[in-house]
Write the structure tokens for this entry.
Amino acid sequence: MNFRQLGIKIALPVLLVTATGAALAQFQKPEDAIKYRQSALTVMANHFGRIGAVVKGEAPYNKDDVAKNAALVATLSTLPWQAFGPGTEGGKALPEIWSDNAKFKSAADKLQVATADLNSAAQSGNLDNVKKAFGAVGQACKACHDDFRKK
Ligand code: ASC
């Protein structure tokens, strides 16, 4: 073996271990990533649902409550995506998340834009705007579920 072959023999495993380590850095094992993203999505759905009750007329409109829930949804919508890294397949996630990752990222970005809009509407206290923005967020949830979540 010459020095070049030796270099490849050492560098390649180091590169692979580093790449995997970076992806899993925030999570000890894939199950931890699955639990994290499912938890973030569950809490987000809960606060989104509280706004939904107001939008559907099932609960009275309280500006401050809706504003707080919308701020939480906007923040929570930034969290799940870091937990879909390489090697974290499983749960209700379809393989297309990894095989068509650009499309998944675009869907995740759309949700975050829509939740930021909902938050702006909620902070301004205009229920008609909240209703419109709520619908756009729901569509962003559904679009991603249709393409990337097991039925
Ligand atoms: C929710 C929730 C979702 C979305 C989706 C919108 O409240 O839990 O997953 O809205 O149903 O289409």
In short: The chain has six helices and no strands. The first helix runs from residue 3 to 24.
